[in-house]
Amino acid sequence: MPELPEVETVRRGLNKLIIGRKILDVEILNEKSFSFAGSFLAKNVIGAKITIVRRRGKVLIIDLDNNFSLVIHLKMTGQMVVRGDKEWGAGHPTNSLIGRLPDKSTRVIFSLRGDAKLFFNDQRKFGWIKLLPTNEVDKIKFLVEMGPEPWEEKIDEKFTKNVRRHGNSMIKSIILNQSVIAGIGNIYADESLWMAKIHPKTRVKNLPDKKLKEICHAAGEIMQKSIDSGGSTMQTYVRADGTRGDYLEKFANVFNRQGQPCPRCKTLIIKIKVAGRGTHICPKCQKLS
DNA sequence: CTAGGATCCTGTCAGC
DNA sequence: TGCTGACAGGATCCTA
What we know:
By secondary structure, this protein is an alpha+beta fold. It folds into two domains: about 5-145, Alpha-Beta Barrel (N-terminal domain of MutM-like DNA repair proteins), CATH 3.20.190.10; about 155-280, Helicase, Ruva Protein, domain 3, CATH 1.10.8.50. It is about 25% helix and about 25% strand. A hairpin with a 3-residue loop joins strand 6 (about 80-85) and strand 7. It binds a DNA duplex through helix 6.
């Protein structure tokens, strides 16, 4: 899925394109992709104007001018794509960003004033959109329990405190836990642990605070850099020629680089399984002590 | 309480 | 070519 930097990129893109637009119609092609449907939906979405697009962790929040909000989780394959007088899109890199829309992965279509459409595409149907009164958004369990954003004040203290609650767990599964810190996914977990030279299977109890701090800083830096690099995903994979994006190939040190030399020590990167997820490490830099 | 595995779903790819 | 199993940038639910 898009992780924090990709969701942030989507947020910024949407803010440029759909602020102030009125929603004229909503089409739900897959019921499970949009909860709070029925008459409630029509009454509260259609006719409303989009005021701002926010983000918390990997969750997008589109506020409307009638005190309702659309809360969106893209999960593994979700995309938000705007088509119309201008053209823009972002999300998991598949050809639906470039191809004709709607396509077979289109789950929800918002028609906007100005002859534009906002498509929610989601191949695997794990993603969701919920319609809620704006003042109830923060009460969603997932958001209530969500850990700090990576650039909050005293983030390393908060991170360490949250990590320590899971002493016997493997560090990788813990930094993927959104209640520990917001926004890290499989790519940035692997990249952060490589940066901090820590084996992903290391038990939390075997890591000193200093090491946790390093992981935390690495994660923040990597994700900030990814955002700054221009919405890591966008420019590369929305291309006229319709090819897939290559930002991963340019950006990552270990992710998806099994068989290639570690940028630090030239040892070949290997791929293992940790906490049920494909995991990429340098076997020399990241030893399990 | 935690840890670990199965699960939601569609599509692609490697290996036979 | 067709089949099968593994796997995919996420999070929850269930079991022990």
